[in-house]
Amino acid sequence: MKITTMAPLLSVVAPCFNEAANLRELVQRISAVVAPLGNYEIVLVDDGSRDDSVAVMRDLAAQNPCVRWLALSRNFGHQRALRAGLDSARGDAVISLDADLQHPPELIPTLVEAWRGGAEVVTTVRQDPPESDPFKRWTGRLFYRLLNAMSDTPIEPGSADFRLLDRRVVDAIRALPETDLFFRGLVPWLGFRVASVKFNPDARTRGQSAYTLRRMVSLAASGITSSSITPLRLSILLAVGLACVALLFVVYALLRWAAGDAVPGWTSILVVVALLGAMQLFVLGVIGEYLGRVLRQTQGRPPYLVRTASDEEAR
Ligand code: UDP
Ligand code: MG
User: Fold this and answer.
1) Where are the domains of the chain?
2) pLDDT averaged over every residue in the chain
3) Which domain of life is it from (predicted)?
4) I need a surface site. Which of 102, 120, 236, 280 has the fewest CB within 10 A?
């Protein structure tokens, strides 16, 4: 049995990019719900905001000793800001949520309850409200479908970066050398005991979404390339498909040639082009396979993660 002398600490991490208008309400609503749960800290990560987010953070930290903040040197993007927050958080459980109040802090007690019930990862799944931007909804759905068709650790559609991670899980993530983390894809890869909670996201009332189309495409690309090597395999599949077609072509060209109604040179050019095309794609596919291995290796993910072992239980 582990003897705990201190009450567990809850960390709430929020990456912020130009969220000055939301921060006061955010901190007020978070502390209102987590203070009754015990010790807590709120870690605000300024991701190179161009408004006065940092000044507001400084002010909030002066008013409430449970508020800490850190400011990144420039805008690194949501996922990296999140990682900075995880690195800085000291809690036994770390909850991450968006600073724009689209993730209702009032759900935190539900996440904590699931954690106390033994879950090590508590994920949330958005129930899309009908009034949300149809373009975002549609592209989001397409993205999850595409990703899940390729990846062997599926992500539940509607997954949000609103989740609770046990200290063990945070430490496992922090040990990864990968620079481009895509948390939504990483979390299902991690395993551990997972619980999931549904929620209705609120509309953004102040400030605007930093996710432009360009950023969404880049997030999607990093999500796919970090959790799947299937695109690299596509050329082999294409090569096999093309080889079949090429073979039909070759037979057809030879028949025409045998019948004597082919222009001289037509048969040989067609055969050579079709076969060479298929062969090139095949070789590209082989290179892709090796590149995939190189990618996996450079990502440096451990081959497995251990949840517990007898040695540890004894302590
Ligand atoms: N964010 C960030 N860095 C960025 C873009 C966004 O830290 O470069 C934060 C932002 O402040 C918010 C969260 O990430 O807390 C989600 O961003 P946003 O609301 O713009 O995304 P959406 O909800 O539209 O997907
Ligand atoms: Mg948002």
Assistant:
1) 10-210+302-313, 230-298
2) 85
3) Bacteria
4) 280
